[in-house]
Specification:
3 domains; 9% strand; 11 helices
């Protein structure tokens, strides 16, 4: 059973899809933004039938695919898929539980009936007078025992199948949860997960020091304008991988929005947060990114970073505001630097 969209296409298929996507974007005069690319990919690849049907209707109506319309399509047919998947899994779980409950109840009833029959037959044994009568009672007991054995075997088979289905559902649930929590382009956690984890951090009122790091790529619009959005996406993914590589296992690396990233750092000193941030900054600055299948350089890519630590009485808004303020100072005072609030 698979209820999560499958993108496991071959390299040749994806190459074909890319050509079709670019033709579609050009024909509809749509900018090649990540959102428009996601819509086009699901439509062209046939991964999202409901979305494709909606797009076909809009094409027939000659509706312009402006920013408002594409955002509506994305919210309705892509971002809500995880919620629909959760509902589907819950329904399957309930159906499986009901089916297993009915099977167990039926077996209990059969076992109870067999028990009653055994008691009657045991009483009959005491009153038998001939070998033929004894043989008849024994034959009835054997029949009841055989039926009970068959019932027990059927129950085991049903429970084994139910267990397999539950394991499949559990696997699907893990996949859906991961999909719902992560950003499709970068693989980092998404904004919704950021809000949740930051609230958890504040609610715990941890005694040890914790920090929030906000990061923003410098002149990212220029990268997109000069080299195109696909190159911009590659830069964003490369930077995101630096976060994954250098953040601690208990940290939460997030795509906060656009080219702005964040790391929630529970149980981390300001000094340690600064060390991690500097490693990310210097690694990106020293990287010499080139276009794929080409030796053409993209140029030096840098990032500005703001850091703050969690203070007693802080709300999520307080923490974000201070980190954002530090990030703004880093931007305003030269970029490619770290400012600690």
């Amino acid at each position: 059973m698979s209820i999560v969209t499958n993108y496991d296409f071959s390299e040749d298929q994806n190459t074909h899809f890319l050509r079709q996507i670019l033709l579609f974007l050009s024909a509809q005069k749509m900018l090649p933004t990540p959102l428009n690319y996601a819509l086009s990919y699901e439509h062209v690849s046939g991964s999202n039938i409901k979305l494709s049907n909606a797009i076909d209707i809009l094409l027939k109506q000659r509706k312009p695919f402006d920013e408002k319309l594409t955002l509506q399509l994305y919210n309705k047919y892509i971002s809500n898929n995880s919620l629909e998947s959760f509902d589907k899994i819950n329904q399957d779980f309930e159906s499986l539980i009901d089916k297993t409950r009915e099977t167990v109840a039926l077996t209990i009833q059969k076992a109870s009936d067999a028990g009653d029959a055994f008691e009657e037959q045991a009483a009959s044994v005491a009153s038998v007078k001939t070998s033929n009568e004894l043989q008849k009672v024994i034959s009835e007991i054997v029949t009841e025992a055989t039926d009970l054995a068959h019932t027990s075997k059927s129950l085991k088979t049903e429970l084994d199948l139910a267990n397999q289905e539950m394991e499949q559902l559990r696997t699907e649930l893990i996949r859906v949860r991961k999909s719902a929590a992560t950003d499709a382009l970068t693989g980092l956690l998404n904004r919704g997960t950021f809000d949740k984890e930051l609230a958890n951090l504040i609610d715990k009122k941890a005694k040890s020091e914790s920090c929030l790091v906000m990061l923003d790529l410098d002149f990212f619009k220029k990268v997109n304008d000069t080299h195109g959005h696909l190159i911009g996406d590659s830069v964003l993914k490369f930077t995101s991988n630096l976060l994954k590589k250098n953040a601690e296992p208990h940290h939460f690396s997030v795509r906060y929005g656009g080219e702005e990233l964040a790391i929630i750092m529970p149980d981390t000193t300001l000094q340690k947060a600064s060390q991690i941030a500097e490693t990310i900054r210097s690694s990106l600055e020293s990287s010499r990114l080139k276009k794929k299948n080409s030796s053409e350089s993209i140029g030096k890519i840098t990032i500005s970073i703001g850091i703050t630590r969690l203070k007693e009485g802080d709300t999520s808004e307080d923490l974000i505001m201070r980190a954002d303020s530090a990030l703004y100072q880093a931007k305003e005072t030269g970029r490619n630097k770290i400012v600690i609030e």
